[in-house]
């Protein structure tokens, strides 16, 4: 198969970077304006804007209000293979992608959004928790929290884990600043520079950035409709001997797929045969049945580390996640947390524990799942009418992995849709080889039903 050309904005950014490094543009020089480059190269304005933002993320240029973009006086050095292999450079490209996904411009429609609508989460009544938290812990609200996290929350999490078949003790649970800090701690603890790590492909792209920043060799395991490709996984285990495999068993981001029970057992057998640790990301646990197959439930946290979060079911602003693992490893990760961030937020942990303890939380989850099931059903029907292909069809899913005939490159489609105020999540950003064209996009079932999306796609087809 021939190599697929890089998206236009990346190709333009690479071209300008070469000119900067070759001395065509020196420190302090002003780059041609957006309009000049768009006219001279025949690019759309959004393509040029994206290229300039990518150059800013790479640390090569800086914007000056009202004046344009200027080459920085001190351009990061790179020569030979270092230009291609520099881990921070690769990470900064992912940071740029994150900035693009997190940006919420007025009037834009985020079709690739990874969250339920805010009004769906309002039923948790986060606004009522502050006074309860303040009354219960006034003496601790002005100091760092415990290195192991808020004890009542850890006890509450033990009960929640038992509900999904995971037998754990409070000493095996470390609350973190969201599931992302849990991933970061695991990467710091286990991954040496040059170490090989397996991840889902496609998969959670901020994890890929963390691994690049650590200097790891990142290898993808193809994700199928029922979980990882077992043949590919076994081949990689035999040839590369990796120590870690980061995977998402249920409600997989971005495909929405679930791990089947036979495949879960097969993955655990391979892990035992090849001395592999499995890091199971289950941040969407609240959106799947307690009886659904989870690696950590089948394994008993022997070869598994289990990550959880409340960002999707309560609030991403609270930034409360956790890792469950062996007691000895939990102590080590807690010490590492002290070194990197002192402690997680006891205020936020108290707020989550307060919400979980209330009776209305169960009702909130029931309503949330019901709304999501209705939105997912309606989204499937709409996508079918639009002629889209859907990867898998769970009853309710925050993520729908879809592609449209006539659009073989989702990145190019996303660039075109930006001109109509539509922000998509093209599939290549989730893939280990992000420069290869991918026809798939991650879609939010609620957002795709906004009439602006169908109208914009029809205009492009026309």
Structure description:
43% of the residues are buried. Helices cover 44% and strands 13% of the residues. Strands 4-11-10-9-8-5-6-7 form an 8-stranded mixed beta sheet, with helices on both faces. It has a 4-stranded antiparallel beta sheet with strand order 12-13-16-15. It is of the alpha/beta class. It is built from 18 helices and 16 strands. Strand 5, helix 10 (205-213) and strand 6 form a beta-alpha-beta unit. The longest helix is centred in the last third of the chain and has 26 residues, at 360-385. The protein folds into 3 domains: 8-85, Winged helix-like DNA-binding domain superfamily/Winged helix DNA-binding domain (Arc Repressor Mutant, subunit A), CATH 1.10.10; 97-120 and 363-461, Alpha-Beta Complex (Aspartate Aminotransferase, domain 1), CATH 3.90.1150.10; 125-357, Aspartate Aminotransferase, domain 2 (3-Layer(aba) Sandwich), CATH 3.40.640.10. It has helices at 8-21, 34-41, 45-57, 81-85, 87-102, 118-121, 129-136, 151-163, 178-190, 205-213, 230-240, 261-273, 295-299, 327-341, 346-357, 360-385, 410-418, 451-461; strands at 61-64, 68-71, 109-110, 173-176, 196-201, 217-224, 227-228, 244-247, 277-281, 304-309, 321-324, 389-390, 400-403, 422-423, 425-426, 441-443.
Spell out the key features of this protein.
transcription; 13% strand; Aspartate Aminotransferase, domain 2; Arc Repressor Mutant, subunit A; globular; 462 residues; single chain; 3 domains; pyridoxal phosphate binding; 18 helices; Aspartate Aminotransferase, domain 1; alpha/beta
């Amino acid at each position: 198969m021939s190599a697929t050309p890089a998206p236009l904005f990346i190709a333009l950014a690479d071209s300008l970077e070469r000119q900067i490094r070759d001395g065509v543009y020196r420190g302090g020089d002003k780059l041609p304006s957006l309009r000049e480059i768009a006219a001279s190269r025949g690019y759309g304005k959004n393509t040029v804007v994206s290229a300039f933002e990518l150059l800013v993320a790479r640390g090569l240029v800086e914007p000056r209000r009202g004046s344009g973009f200027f080459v920085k006086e001190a351009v990061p050095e790179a020569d030979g293979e270092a230009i291609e292999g520099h881990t921070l450079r690769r990470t900064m490209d992912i940071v740029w992608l994150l900035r693009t996904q997190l940006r919420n411009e007025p009037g834009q429609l985020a079709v690739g959004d990874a969250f339920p609508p805010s009004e769906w989460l309002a039923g948790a009544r986060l606004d009522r928790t502050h006074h309860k938290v303040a009354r219960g812990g006034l003496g601790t609200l002005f100091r760092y929290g415990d290195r192991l996290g808020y004890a009542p929350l850890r006890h509450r999490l033990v009960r929640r884990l038992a509900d999904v078949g995971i037998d754990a003790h409070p000493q095996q649970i470390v609350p973190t600043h969201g599931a992302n800090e849990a991933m970061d701690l695991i990467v710091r603890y286990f991954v040496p520079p040059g170490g090989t790590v397996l991840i889902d492909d496609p998969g959670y792209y901020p994890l890929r950035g963390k691994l690049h920043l650590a200097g790891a060799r990142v290898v993808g395991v193809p994700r199928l409709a029922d979980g990882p490709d077992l043949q590919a996984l076994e081949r990689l285990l035999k040839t590369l001997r990796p120590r870690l495999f980061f995977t998402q068993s249920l409600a997989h981001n971005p495909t929405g797929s679930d791990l089947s029970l036979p495949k879960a057992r097969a993955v655990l057998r391979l892990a035992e045969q090849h001395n592999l640790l499995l890091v199971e990301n289950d941040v969407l646990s609240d959106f799947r049945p307690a009886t659904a197959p989870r690696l950590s439930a089948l394994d008993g946290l022997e070869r598994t580390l289990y990550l959880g979060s409340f960002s999707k079911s309560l609030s991403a602003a609270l930034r409360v996640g956790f890792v469950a693992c062996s007691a000895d490893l939990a102590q080590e990760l807690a010490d590492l947390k002290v070194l990197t961030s002192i402690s997680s937020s006891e205020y936020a942990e108290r707020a989550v524990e307060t919400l979980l303890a209330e009776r209305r939380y169960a009702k909130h989850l029931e309503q949330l799942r019901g709304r999501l099931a209705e939105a997912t059903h309606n989204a499937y029907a709409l996508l079918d009418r639009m002629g889209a292909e859907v990867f898998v069809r769970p009853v309710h899913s925050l993520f729908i992995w879809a592609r449209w005939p006539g659009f073989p490159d989702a990145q190019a489609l996303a660039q075109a849709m930006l001109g109509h105020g539509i922000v998509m999540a093209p599939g290549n950003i989730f893939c280990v080889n992000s420069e290869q064209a991918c026809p798939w996009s991650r879609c939010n079932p609620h957002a795709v039903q906004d009439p602006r999306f169908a109208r914009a796609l029809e205009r492009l087809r026309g």
